[in-house]
Write a structure and sequence with these properties.
The protein is α+β, with helices and mostly antiparallel strands and 178 residues long. It has helices at residues 16-28, 43-48, 56-82, 95-121, 158-167; strands spanning 6-13, 34-37, 145-150, 172-177.
Length: 178
């Protein structure tokens, strides 16, 4: 049940092992809607909260395939169907001549899909997020580490979740309002 007016609970940690241990324990207890915040990348933190799915590679592959197919199709249409010109007895569908354009369109399609896909999957642009309301969250860009369990999580119960977070030995646990 989602608590009205509360986005979640935010626990502040001083050490990376403390944050990772708390995230692993939260994942073991069944919490799935949570995130970690830190001033530097912590790869084990993503694994600790159960973040294993990454569809960026699939999006880039599909964008590259569509770009290459589009480039080749355009070359074919122009050279064979729309404006066929026989130059020196060369066949109209001379596929080796189409390779450079196909390659460039593949790279362009992959790059554009990577850029747009990353923006979409990261939920960007996001000029506002509820954790920005937490009084001590500005330290996330300096030297503090945070674990936020969202109220939208099916396991979330305000008192039980607060008690769990306090057992993980954080500096402070604060409520994050919407």
């Amino acid at each position: 049940m989602i608590e009205p007016g509360i986005y979640g609970l935010l626990a502040e940690y001083d050490t990376v092992p403390g944050l990772i241990e708390a995230a692993e324990r939260a994942h073991e207890l069944g919490y799935r809607r949570m995130d970690t915040y830190s001033p530097f990348p912590i790869e084990p933190a993503a694994e600790a909260i159960g973040f294993h799915k990454n569809r960026v590679a699939l999006v880039v592959l599909l964008g590259g395939l569509l770009g290459g197919l589009g480039g080749y199709s355009l070359e074919y249409w122009v050279s064979v169907l729309a404006y066929p010109i026989n130059v020196g007895g060369k066949p109209l569908h001379s596929w080796p001549a189409f390779i450079p354009v196909t390659f460039e369109c593949t790279v362009l399609g992959a790059a554009i899909s990577a850029f747009i896909g990353m923006l979409a999957m990261n939920g960007l642009p996001m000029p506002y997020h509820p954790v920005f309301n937490a009084p001590n969250f500005t330290a996330a860009s300096k030297d503090k580490l945070f674990l936020c369990i969202e109220a939208a999580d099916p396991q979330f119960d305000l008192s039980r979740t607060r008690r769990f977070l306090e057992e993980t030995d954080p500096r402070v646990v604060t409520e994050v309002s919407n």
